[in-house]
Amino acid sequence: FFHFYAGICSALKLTVPSHTIHGIEGQPLHLSVDYNFNATASEIQIIWLFERSQSNPKYVVGSVNQGVIPDLEYQDKFTLIPPNASLRINPLHLSDEGNYIVKVNVRGNGTIAASQKIQVAVDVPVTKPTVHTEPSSGVVEYVGNITLKCTVDRGTRVVYQWMKNGKRLHAGPNYTFS
Fold this sequence. Notes:
The chain contains one helix and 15 strands, in the order H-E-E-E-E-E-E-E-E-E-E-E-E-E-E-E. The chain is mostly beta strands. It has two domains: 13-123, Immunoglobulin-like (Sandwich), CATH 2.60.40.10; 130-177, no CATH class. A six-stranded mixed β-sheet has the order 2-11-10-5-6-7, with no helix packed on it. It has a three-stranded antiparallel β-sheet with strand order 3-9-8, with no helix packed on it. Strands 1-4 form a two-stranded antiparallel sheet. A hairpin with a 6-residue loop joins strand 5 (43-51) and strand 6 (58-64). It is found in: Cytoplasm; Endomembrane system. Residues 129-178 form the Ig-like domain. Pfam families: V-set. Its main location: cytoplasm.
């Protein structure tokens, strides 16, 4: 009975954000992780892996006790400050979109382990829109049509909305949208 109870006592709890984390391209992103356990620990190991869709997880950074072990390829990009298990990514690129897996191992009287996955989406800020008119003079009196074309150079999840005098325009006999 005692051994069973001790096993329950020494469980390792790992808490990560539950939904997709959105970061902005070129900005830092902080992946916040909390862990706790009530065992006596002689060693605490933290491992971070990155997994793009259809590819194997890659090691990015880890630590044993207070010593950080970076992957040399990414050492300037990922920051881990043990015993905190949170990860900082700076700067964030579109190629950093995917799943980040954190694993914590605690060695004391035996080893306990837990891992969690955090999904990261990278957003690109929408650039200032440009509007072109056809005919280019923009003057149409009484008859004829004018076409307004709006474009943006960069941005994720772009939504276009036309307004007239601060009110939303809807399709009708005078307006068509494409």
